[in-house]
Structure formats: C-alpha cells, structure tokens
Write a structure and sequence with these properties.
Number of helices of chain A: 15
Distance between the termini of chain A: 73 Å
Radius of gyration of chain B: 24 Å
Structural class of chain B: mainly alpha
Mean pLDDT of chain B: 85
CATH topology of the largest domain in chain A: D-Maltodextrin-Binding Protein, domain 2
Strand content of chain A: 15-25%
CATH topology of the largest domain in chain B: MetI-like fold
Largest interface: A-B, 61 and 51 residues
Oligomer: heterodimer
Shape of chain A: globular
Order of helices and strands of chain A: HEHEHEHHEEHEHHEHEHEEHHEHHH
Number of domains of chain A: 2
CATH architecture of the largest domain in chain A: 3-Layer(aba) Sandwich
Mean pLDDT of chain A: 87
Largest sheet of chain A: 11 strands, mixed
Radius of gyration of chain A: 22 Å
Number of domains of chain B: 2
Low-confidence stretches of chain A: 11-21
Distance between the termini of chain B: 29 Å
CATH superfamily of the largest domain in chain B: MetI-like
Helix content of chain B: over 70%
Largest sheet of chain B: 2 strands, antiparallel
Helix content of chain A: 40-55%
Shape of chain B: globular
Structural class of chain A: alpha/beta
Chain lengths: 335, 556
C-alpha cells in the first residue's frame, strides 16, 4: 500500500514537472514562409531562451480554414503572420484578444487594428515573374504594367492566381478594383481574362510555372520573383508601373491562449529591433521602423522606397467586400 | 455460399464461443466504422443543413444548386470520372490478365511499375507529367510542338495512372483463382482462346470488374491533388469544395458540395450491387489452380503491351527522381545532391512519424477488414447488406471533407475525444478510414475465392471458428491480406488531402512536408523529399516481400 502511495506521488510529481516544462511552450499558427520562420525562430531563441515556439505552417487559405474549424477548441496561442484580409474575417476576429505589443504605437495606423486585436510588421506585394528566355524565344514584349498584359501577343502566355482560392489572387483583384475604381476595374479584369492561360490555385505557383518556362508571365508575389532570381532562374521581376496591390501579414493573441504570458513576450519580440534586422532578408514590405531591404532585393529590382510603388489599399473595405467581389468574379470571369 | 454457412451456424451444435467470436469479428470493425466514419460524416451533414443564421434548413443546397459553376463542375466531374473509368478499366484488365494469365517477361517488374503512382505523393505525378509534356517539357521540346497538357487530357492521364494500380489490385484478385478444369474442358471442346476469354474469363471476373470500376469512378471523382497540379481551369467538384472551404471559408457550402458528391457514388454503388446480386462466390472447393503455359502468340504481344503501359508511370515518376538530382530544372542539368539537405519544414523527422502512422493504419486496417469479411460471410444477408453499403461509402468521401469532418467532430473542448485530437493515432485512424473501401473490396474479392467447402469441412471436423480462421481461411487469404496491408501502408505514407487538416504543431507527416517545401518555392527539395518517401516505401515493400517468402518457405 505504501509502495503504491509512493508511486502515486512520483506520478503526481512527474505531472507537475511536465506541466512546468510546458510553461515555456507556445503554439503559433503561421502562414509565413518556411525559410523565414526558421530564421526568426533562431533569432527569437537568443532573445527569449526560455520560450519554446511550436509551429504549424499552412498556406493562408488552409490556415484560415483550420483556425475556423478549430474555433470551438483552439489549439494555438497566437496567430503569427496571416493575411490581414483573412484575419479581419469576423469569425476569426471573435477569437482574438486585444493586445498592443511594446512599440506598436510606432506602427503606422494601417498596420494595426483600431481595437488592438491585430498588428502587422510585414507584408507582401504583387509583382510579375517574367521568364526572359521564353520572352526572347517567342519575341514577346516585356510588360511594364498591368495594361501591357492586354497585349494580344501575350495571349495564352499569362498565368495568375485564382482569387477564389488564393489570397494573393484576391489582393491583385482587389488592388485593381481599388486603383481603377469599380467600373473600370471590372472592365479591365474582363479584358485581361482573354489573355490569361490559366487561373492557378495558389499565389506563388504562377511564378513557379513561369520560371520553368511553362508560361512567359506569372502574375505572383515580389518575394517569389526575388527568390527565383536568387536561385538562378532566368526571371525578371516587374513591379506594375502604376502601383502594386499588397497584403499585410498580421499577428494576434488568441483569447483562448493557454500560455498568454509567453505568447505576449513572443509577440513583443516580433516588434523588436532584433526581429526587424532579419525582416530585410525576406520581406519587401516592413512596417516597423529601421527597416532596410537587403542588397539582393535591390539587385532583383525592388525600389529602395517600397511605399512609392504600393497602391493604397483599404483593407477593411477589401475584407468586407470579399464575398461580393468573388461572387462577381466567378459569375463574370471564373472558369 | 453465404447462405450455406448461415445454416451451419443455425445447427444446435454451434458453440457459444463461435458465436461470441463472430460477434467480436463484426462488432469491433463496425464500431470503428460508425465512430470514425459515420459519426464525423453526420457532423458534415449537419453543417450542410445549417444556414448562415444558425437555423436548420436547405438554404445552402439552394445556394449551391443555383450557381452555374456548380453544374459545370458536376458535368466535368462526371465526364472525367467516366472517361477515367473506361481507360483504367481497360488498362487494368490488360495488366491483370498479362500478369495472372499469361507468362510475360518481367512480370513482377510490370506490377511494381504500375503500382508506382500509389507510393508517390500526389504532387509527384502532376510534376512528372509537366516535366515531360508541359509547354516547356522534355518531350514537348524534343518534338518541337507545343501542346496544352493543362486541362482535360492532362487530368485524364494523371487520373488514369493513379487509378490503374487500384484497378489491377482488384481485377488481379479476381483473376488469381480460376479453375483450370473449365479451361481444359473448353480446350477439349475446341473453343477458341478468344471465346474462352469472353465466355469463361470475363463472366468469372464480372464482379471484380464492377468493383474495380466503382473504385476508379469514386477515386477519380473525389481526387483533388491531380486536379490542382495539372487540371488547369478544368473545374471539378473536389476543387469546388476546396474553393468554398479554403478560399471562401464557407464550411457549410463546402459540406453541401461534399454531400452532393456522394450522390453519383451512391448511384454507382447501386448499379454495382444490382449487377452483382446473383454472383456471390465463384471459388470452388475442388478447383485446380490455373498455371498459364507458354504461348508465344499470346505472351509476346502481351509482354509488349504490358511494358508500354508500365513505362508510362515509370517514366513519369522517374523524371521527378531525376529532377531531384538536377542543379536547376530545366536550365542547368548538372547533377547534385544539394536538394537532399532539407533543413526547413522540420527536416526529415516527419518522414519517420509517417512510417509509424502508416504501419499502425495498415495493421489495424488489415486485421479489421479480415475480421469483418470473415464475419460477413457467415451472417444473414439482411445484416450483410447495410454493413457492405457502409463499407463502400468511405471511397465516396473526398479526403478534404473527411479531414474537415474529423476536426469539426473530434476537436471538442471536453469529452474523451480531446485525448485523441492532435495525436498520431487519429491520423492513422483517418487514413485507415479514407482507404477502407479499397481494402474492403479486395478482402471480399479474396474471400469469395476461398472454397466454402474447405471451411465447412474444417467446421464439421470440429474446428471452432477461430481455428477455421487461423488455419484455413487465414493461410488461403495471406496473399490478399498482405496486398491490403501494403495498400493501406503505401496510401498512408503519401496521402495528403485528409491529413492536411489533422497535422499539428508537433505531429506532421511527409506529404505535408513535401507540400510545404513546394509552396515555399523549393520544388527540387520537394522532389528530393518525395524521392526519400518513395525509397522508404520501396524498402518496406522489399522487407515485407522477403518476410512473406521466408514465411512461405518455413510453412512448406
């Protein structure tokens, strides 16, 4: 009997210890890119050695669906880098806890929620991946802006993401509609449609099929273009001359966070200079002060002052109109 | 045959232990089926009739039906599935006939090559076809003609290759047992080989062909991976679900499309059942196994045809393996192993997790399916029918829907499910259920070939059911069960659509790593990871074949 009692105590003690070991662990759901996650976590480990960050990485759409499906019993403490348009979805908003990390007052107003439920340190923008070899072989003109994609010579040579399944595709469509206005915007999208070879399900894939020479122009993301250039593919990055649509990557604390204290410390860290120092290697858009794009980004064709090429986007509008825009897109254009 | 055995249970001497054993054989797999398939599916049904304001009604159905996209996707799905069924059935019959009834050169190599798409992660096949036949593909460049692989034709090729091994598995099981005496009699009567094929062989495997057709049809109509990589703008129902759930975050509309997807499958099921109503077993106790003799006029052309078919998947997958060693596809063809240094996305750890999950799924699946089949053969028809129907349903459910159903069902804040959610065990269960139907059909096809009289004789000699199972049915079923085990193992190693919703921050699997690498822009690393995954499956296959061989020798 006494032996059993002792065993019970041992069990209890183990459980307590295990609980204590868990105390420094947080779970983050993220849609950031794999290689940047690895770099951020390595740096975070130095600043917050006692915090162990467990990661679930999925694409923006998959992750949003996952968060909503788990809403009854969320498994994560924070959302770390998810498209603002997605995080503004009311059902996701309902799961968030207001939190303003240290230094977030220095963020521009467009990069944080007015209710402090989210803040964004980084973002990505639309860009064309142009395969220079295919362009040469086919004798096609180099496009400089969205309007150039209407050139009949490019018929069947342009691919873009499907806005229904891809967040990147949606930011492109929403960017065009906000830039040109509803009536002009839809007319343009309709005209563009006749040159589009394929609407692809993910946002980075158009760049990947363009870089291997399947198509001449992949309407995609600046980061995908820069990465392809760094890998050595014959790709040129073209930022639409009249401005590119963009999306911010928002982070937020879950109301259900099991380890809110460490979760807040980690979110604070994403605002720190230590983190900002790495953003330049992976991000074309950074909202925290003191950011400088890395040399390779500039070499790939990113302007020093990125904000000069961005189309001003009203995120709450593009989030609120999402359903109606996509419905119309499916009706008028969708294949 | 079922009826004969039912009466033998009815005789008063039937022992209580037999009855208990039979109940156990039925109840354990059946409760797994209900708990991990019917219950989650019911959750999806509830979601499909939950309207945006939370009330119950058919508003979602009205919304979906009123969309022109939905009807176009439905029409595309039907055309694609029927075309794939026709192609894979014909190719499958050729391969199965060539390997079971002819003496072709390199028989096991042909079988292995055809099975390749089963052990390749879904990305690989689409990638391979694009590398070969894409607008900048190797074949395209060599021929100098640019054609568009994206769309109907590319999808048809990919789907047919993917469905082919599953068709071969079932048709071969049906062809495996034949009574040589029937053919000898035909020979004596001077029947031509062609007539023997159409009058003896085909009628005998009618059941297998129908089951195979059913599987090809449902597997194609629910497939998402091929459509996403090579389908281009050819919209089908499975991509429609993805658009609803992932693109628009509308689970309820996605659930509706998922439920609608069940309808054509139910129709296929009904047709299959009606057609096979009378054919319930063809195994004969005194059958003499057919050993095909060497016949050059038949075997040489069959060897050529079988090899042409087998080369298609071999080249498609081989090119991806090759690309994983190429410096920069398709611009720099120097060989390198640099893509094998996978550091991100958790490195190679998920691969070992996947092996454990797959072993668990395969073992549990094979045991349960064998027990269920064994019990079904000894139960009254009225009981068999509903269980049979239930066991065919999992094939009709797209992985995407199954995965979502699991989250919506098992991620409860309280209750016993909490312990299961997020574990590797739940992933294994999900995989087992996802591929339950294929395993079930193969098991049943195999069981029908076990001579009933042999089992009855054993029973009359006083062997209890456990002993009949262990010493008569089991050994005769060994080959089929190994195929089932293997099939489940291979599918679990590479499946993506269902588990994408079930991986967690701590438990991830190989197919998700491959997808993550590809999404992150590291296509060559994704190909490298896929190659490693295939290598693990092939090694496992070798180990299993070897142990089977040793086992067989010891028994002899």
């Amino acid at each position: 009997m006494r032996a059993m009692g002792r065993m019970l105590w041992a069990c209890l003690l183990t459980m307590v210890l295990a609980g204590a070991a868990q105390a420094g662990t947080i779970t983050a759901y993220t849609a950031l890119e794999e290689d940047e996650i690895a770099a951020y976590l390595a740096a975070a480990k130095k600043s917050l050695p006692d915090v162990n960050v467990k990661i679930l990485r999925l694409s923006t759409g998959d992750l949003s669906a996952r968060i909503l499906a788990e809403a009854a019993n969320p498994q994560h403490d924070i959302i770390w880098g998810l498209g603002v348009t997605n995080i503004l979805e009311p059902r996701i908003q309902a799961l968030l806890e207001p939190h303003s990390p240290k230094g977030s007052d220095k963020l521009p107003a467009f990069a944080r929620g007015s209710d402090n439920k989210w803040f964004a340190t980084t973002g990505y923008m639309a860009a064309f991946c142009v395969n220079t070899e295919r362009l040469k072989a086919k004798g096609l003109p180099m496009p400089k802006d969205w309007a150039d994609l209407l050139d009949p010579k490019l018929k069947g040579e342009v691919v873009m993401p499907n806005p229904v399944s891809s967040g990147t595709g949606y930011l492109q469509v929403a960017g065009i509609l906000q830039q040109k206005g509803e009536a002009e915007g839809w007319k343009f999208l309709k005209a563009l449609d006749s040159n589009i070879a394929q609407y692809i399900k993910s946002g980075s894939r158009p760049c990947k099929v363009a870089r291997t020479g399947e198509f001449a122009v992949g309407v995609s993301l600046a980061f995908a273009a820069i990465q392809s250039i760094e890998e050595g593919f014959p790709v040129a990055m073209v930022i639409p001359a009249q401005g590119a649509g963009y999306e911010l990557e928002a982070s937020a604390l879950m109301r259900s966070a099991k380890n809110a204290a460490d979760a807040k410390r980690f979110l604070d860290w994403t605002m720190s200079p230590a983190a900002a120092a790495i953003y330049g290697h992976f991000k074309e858009i950074v909202t925290t002060p003191g950011y400088k794009p890395s040399a390779s980004f500039i070499k790939a064709g990113l302007p020093e002052n990125v904000s000069s090429v961005l189309v001003p986007i009203d995120f709450s509008k593009s989030a609120a109109n999402r359903t109606s825009i996509l419905e119309r897109w499916q009706k008028d254009i969708g294949r | 045959m079922g009826i004969g055995i039912v009466t033998s249970i009815g005789i008063p001497r039937a022992r209580d232990t037999d009855r208990l054993f039979l109940i156990l054989c039925l109840v354990v797999p059946l409760s797994a089926l209900i708990l991990f398939f019917v219950y989650p599916l019911a959750t999806v049904v509830v979601h499909s009739v939950t309207e945006p304001d939370g009330r119950i009604g058919f508003g979602n159905y009205a919304t979906v039906i009123s969309q022109p996209n939905f009807w176009r996707a439905t029409a595309n799905s039907m055309v694609m599935s029927l075309a794939t069924t026709a192609v894979s059935l014909i190719l499958g019959l050729i391969i199965a006939f060539a390997t079971q009834r002819c003496r072709i050169a390199g028989r096991s190599l042909v079988l292995a090559a055809v099975a390749l798409p089963l052990l390749a992660p879904s990305l690989v096949q689409g990638l391979g076809l694009i590398f070969l036949l894409g607008r900048n593909g190797l074949v395209t460049k060599a021929l100098g003609v640019e054609f568009n692989i994206y769309g109907f034709w590319g999808l048809l090729i990919a789907n047919s290759l993917y469905a082919l091994p599953q068709a071969v598995l079932i048709i071969a099981a049906a062809l495996r047992s034949a009574d040589a005496r029937v053919y000898e009699a035909a020979e004596v009567l001077g029947t031509s080989k062609l007539r023997q094929f159409f009058d003896i062989t085909l009628p005998n495997i009618k059941f297998g062909l129908l089951s195979a057709g059913f599987i090809i049809f449902t597997v194609t109509i629910t497939d998402f991976g091929n459509a996403a990589t090579i389908g281009g703008d050819y919209a089908i129902l499975a991509t429609e679900i993805y658009g609803q759930v992932v693109g628009q975050m509308n689970f309820n509309l996605g659930a509706v499309v998922g439920i609608m997807l069940l309808l054509p499958t139910m129709l296929a099921f009904y047709l299959e059942r009606v057609a096979t109503q009378r054919q319930f077993g063809s195994g004969s106790d005194s059958a003499v196994p057919l050993v095909p003799g060497w016949s050059p006029a038949r075997d040489i052309p069959m060897t050529v045809v079988a090899w042409i078919i087998a080369l298609l998947p071999l080249i498609t997958i081989g090119i991806v393996v090759y690309a994983s060693f190429v410096w920069l596809w398709p611009y720099r063809f120097d060989l390198t192993v640099r893509h094998y240094a996978v550091k991100i996305a958790g490195g190679y750890e998920p691969l070992w997790t996947t092996v454990q999950i797959s072993l668990l799924a395969a073992f549990a699946g094979a045991v349960m399916l064998f027990a269920l089949g064994f019990a079904l053969q000894r139960l009254p028809r009225s009981l068999v029918k509903p269980v049979y129907f239930l066991s065919l349903l999992p094939a009709a459910v797209p992985g995407l829907v199954l995965g979502l159903a699991y989250i919506l069902t098992f991620n409860a804040a309280s209750g016993p499910w909490q312990l299961l959610y997020g574990t590797a065990a739940l992933l294994a269960i999900c995989n087992m259920m996802h591929y339950w139907t294929q395993g079930f059909l193969t098991t049943m096809t195999g069981l029908r070939q076990v001579p009933a009289a042999l089992e009855e004789t054993a029973a009359c000699l006083g062997a209890g059911l456990p002993r009949v199972m262990r010493e008569v049915t089991g050994p005769l079923m060994a080959q089929t069960l190994i195929s089932v085990f293997f099939f489940l193992f291979m599918r679990s190693m590479v499946t993506l659509s269902a588990v994408i919703f079930l991986v967690t921050a701590s438990v991830s699997v190989a197919s998700v790593s491959i997808m993550r690498l590809d999404e992150a822009g590291f296509t060559a690393q994704a190909a490298a990871f896929a190659t490693c995954t295939m290598a693990v499956v092939i090694v496992a296959a070798g180990v299993m074949q070897l142990s089977l061989y040793l086992l067989g020798r010891r028994r002899r």
